[in-house]
Amino acid sequence: MAFFKLFARNRGALIGLIILGVVTFLAATAHLFFPDDPFSLAGTPMSGPGQNGYLLGSDSLGRDVAAGIAHGAKTSLLIGLLATLVAVCVGIVMGALAGYHGGIIDNLLMRLTEMFQTIPSFIFAILLVAIMKPSIESIVIAIAVVSWPAVARLVRGEFLSLRNREFVQACHTLGMSDTRIILGEILPNCLSPVIVIGSLMVASAILIESGLAFLGLGDPNIMSWGFQIGAGRTLLRSAWWICTFPGIAILLTVLAINLVGEGINDALNPRLRERS
Amino acid sequence: MSFRNWAAAALWALGLLGGSLPAAAQEAGGTFVFIVQPEPPSLASYLSTSGPIGLVAPKIYDGLFDYDNDLNIVPALAESYDVSEDGKTVTFNLRQGVKWHDGEDFTSADVQFTVMEVLTQVHPRGPNTFREVTSIDTPDDYTAVFNLENPAPYMLRALSGYESPIVPKHLLEGEDLRSADLVNNPVGTGAYKFVEWRKGQFIRLDRNEDYWKPGLPYLDRVVGRIIPDASTRTAAIENGEVMYGAYGAIPNIDAVRLRDIDGFSVTTDGYSMINPMALIEFNTTTAPFDNPAMRQAMSLVVDREFLIENIWFGYGKPATSALSSNFAATGLYAEGQPYFPASGDVEAAIAILDAGGLTPDADGVRASFTLDLIPYGEDWRRAGEYLKQALQPLGVEVELRYEDVPTWIKRIYSDYDFQMNINYFYQLSDPVLGVHRQYATDQIRQGTAFVNSSRYSNPDLDVLLDSGAQEPDATVRAATYGEIQSILAEDLPVANIFEMEFLTVYNDKLKDHATSALGAYGPFDQAWIDD
Q1: Does position B165 have pLDDT exceeding 90, yes or no?
Q2: B385: nearest CB among A61, A133, A235
Q3: Whole-angstrom distance, CA of residue B182 vs CA of residue B184
Q4: Do B253 and A62 touch (CB under 8 A)?
Q5: How many CA atoms lie within 13 A of B438 on its CB side?
Q6: Are residues A61 and B382, on separate chains, in Cβ contact within 8 Å?
Q7: CA–CA separation, B516 vs B137, rounded Å?
Q8: I need a labelling partner for B7 at 20 to 30 A (CA). Which of B207, B330, B401, B415 fits?
Q9: How far is B405 from B418, CA to CA, in rounded Å?
């Protein structure tokens, strides 16, 4: 429990964890509290919060904003986690290969990551989704494609500094295969920064997904917060609640994930352990 | 009373004394700024009927005619016309002394060249408009005689500067029509001369000093501002930077708000020759829409009033037939067709599906398919989301697909890789011009956009469409279209949803801008600004 103790020393991280817990709970229980399709035309359009039995109001077609937020939480978390997982996996493979082998492989892989890094990530994501046609798979792929280079650079750096250490050289003399050294020896030693960057990446994935949905590039068959905001944007002057509540949901979730990420960083980074 | 009002009052008093200022005199001068949305691909209205081109080009190019708000013919480049007894010869007497913006004389050779070499070759609707024209004689510089294979009464309704712009022969002859300099540097005979097009910002036109209508136009300059963002457009209207926005440039939600503010007005006039119709196209060659029962059920289940009320803010009218009720004025519209309930009828739809053999499977699903949405904005997405929900009680499962414009056009009109598609069509001023293209067998033209994509082919209907096109007698013609509409109401290769009403939002200082039936696609030669 040493990890959690260290983590809990950061008050913000605790608050973030609680918010994240609530959001996860919301996502997990969306089907219990709002058993209907969140797209269903539940009743009177444009009802304000508290009117006609809508906790958070209804949108221009009479869809329940609260139901949309609950179901949207699932989408946002799912896309955030999936995209991050893919990005981290790709990033680790690329970074590990480049850092461990160095030389021409390093050169090639790093030029490749630079190529990806020079394109503004959000615009690149828009382009990818537009080409592949909006669907949940294409969005996950697009976010992963724009996110992996950061992980790759980080992992490469860690590998570069670790590969000449005595314990790695000892492994070489013992005749271990490259794969085993990479996976079994070096990787476990550089996981903590990867976990931190990964947790922060979930937040940015959620933001990218919301941005895409806001621009009309979300999967039209899946409820998400960005979709709700995009659909309510033109009505902001006459029905503020349609985009305000999903906006708050995005704000809180992204904030919570960032706080948690920072807490993890505090707990895992030995140099920061003495920070009060 | 502010200083300005004092000044105005003083001026008015002076005017009374002098007796020289009539009460509502048209003031000359001023710059008229309007919204062009989105940026036009070119200014070649003879190549493309794309909406934003229509906002700009008719101010530069004239047609043979203009049309007033009651759809009467107003002479433009043609001073008068004469149709022979058998309807097969139409003679146009052209206006003399008209000059192109580059100083050349306008003659009958320009008319001949425009129709025979340009509009019938490259214009999207030209081949249909002028399909009966076999040749054009030019006995002298100011007479053009159209020789027709069959009578074509509808042709006279398609001669505006928007639909059939007359272009300069001397600048296009021998050129590649699609890449000529004229495409982006238009030279016409119209009220305004093209000056400058700064991409992404504005298109500027200046007053044509040699315009053939004496004393016109009043405005010194016309500027089309390109403003991609909808809320910025609304703000530009609201703060007076821009005076006029048409064709949905101002979202309905904002138009409704501006309508209630002093100094701004909203009108649905100026679209009667456009006649937009929101509709659903079905792919009649594959399941489930090869079954007419399925198509009838779709038309029955749509709550047209809900769509109009909640997505289009009350602007629109439920469709009741294959033709818009706006054709009632010409007697062609036949009311009382089945399968067009204004507020949807789920029971009737279920009964039709059961009778048509489309029964639910073990999971209660009768059919599942993908619904394509016209990628022209949020309203259409909302309509798709609505439809998806509205079809659930029938046991019909829908996936929505929303693509970019070129992909969507290719899917629907080249690959025919769709099942059901939300779209809208301009029915225009005559069914021959706007409606036939959606139903006739010879309009199954793979690769041409906005024609018969349902690939519906009915030889009986084709015969009726042809006779409807050629029939000069109004009563007989009305009976023919009555028959056409009852066939289409049963077969429903396309289910009309509602007659759209586009909104024009304008600043009240702008006067006399709605003198043409073409509204925003009109010449604007009589518009003036009352400062």
Answers
A1: yes
A2: A61
A3: 5
A4: no
A5: 27
A6: yes
A7: 29
A8: B207
A9: 15
Mean pLDDT of the region B113-133? 88
Q: What six digits make up the tokens of A214?
A: 């806001």
The answer to whether the pTM exceeds 0.95 is no
| Residue ranges with strand state E in chain A | none
Shortest CB distance from A39 goes to which of B373, B378, B388?
Answer: B388
With both helix axes pointing from N to C terminus, report the angle between A121-132 and A191-214 in degrees, rounded to the nearest 10: 60
Mean pLDDT of the residues in chain B: 88
Q: What is the mean pLDDT of residues B233-248?
A: 91
CA distance B432 to B440: 10
B382 contacts chain A (CB < 8 A): yes
* B415 touching A (Cβ < 8 Å): no
Torsional sign, CA B167, B173, B179, B180? negative
Average pLDDT of chain A is 88
d(CA A245, CA A127): 28
Residue B452 has pLDDT above 80, yes or no: yes
Is the minimum CB–CB distance between B405 and chain A shorter than 8 Å? no
Residue B23 has pLDDT above 80, yes or no: no
What residue type is B143 in one-letter code?
T
Across B95-169, where does the E strand assignment appear? 133-140, 143-148
Give the model's pLDDT for residue B157.
Answer: 87
- CA gyration radius, chain A: 22
CB B288 within 8 A of CB B330: no
**Which residues in chain A have their CB less than 8 angstroms from residue B384's CB?**
220
Nearest residue on chain B to A129, alpha-carbon basis: B403
Interface check for B399 against chain A (CB to CB < 8 A): the answer is: yes
Q: How far is CA B94 from CA A98, B38, B88, B163, B171, in A?
A: 78, 35, 19, 18, 20
- Is B310 near chain A, with CB under 8 Å? yes
Chain A residues near residue B253 by CB distance under 8 angstroms: 234-235, 237-238
Q: Check residue B22 and give its pLDDT.
A: 42
Q: How many CB atoms lie within 10 A of CB A111?
A: 9
Compute CA A48 distance to the chain's CA centroid, rounded to the nearest angstrom.
Answer: 32
**CA-CA distance, B430 to B448, in Å (whole number)?**
20
Chain A interface, best mutation among B313, B389, B405, by max A CB count within 10 A: B389
Q: What is the pLDDT of residues A147-198, one digit of tens each?
A: 999 999 999 999 999 988 899 899 989 988 988 998 888 888 888 889 889 9
Interface test with A, best of B386, B405, B415 (most A CBs within 10 A): B386
CA-to-CA dists, residue B51 to A112, B44, B54, B449, angstroms: 43, 12, 5, 14
Give the Cα-Cα-Cα angle B335, B467, B317 (nearest 5 degrees). Answer: 25
Question: What length is written for chain B?
Answer: 531
Predicted ipTM of the assembly: 0.80
CA dist., res. A163 & res. A186, Å (int)? 7
Q: Is A178 on the interface with B (CB under 8 A)?
A: no
Report, as an integer, the average pLDDT of B94-102: 91
| Contact across the interface for B402 and A238, Cβ inside 8 Å | no
Q: Does residue B390 contact residue B423 with C-beta atoms inside 8 Å?
A: no
Cβ within 8 Å, pair B403-A133? yes
Residue, of A265 and A89, whose pLDDT is higher: A89
Tell me how crowded residue B156 is: count the other CB atoms within 10 A of its CB. 16
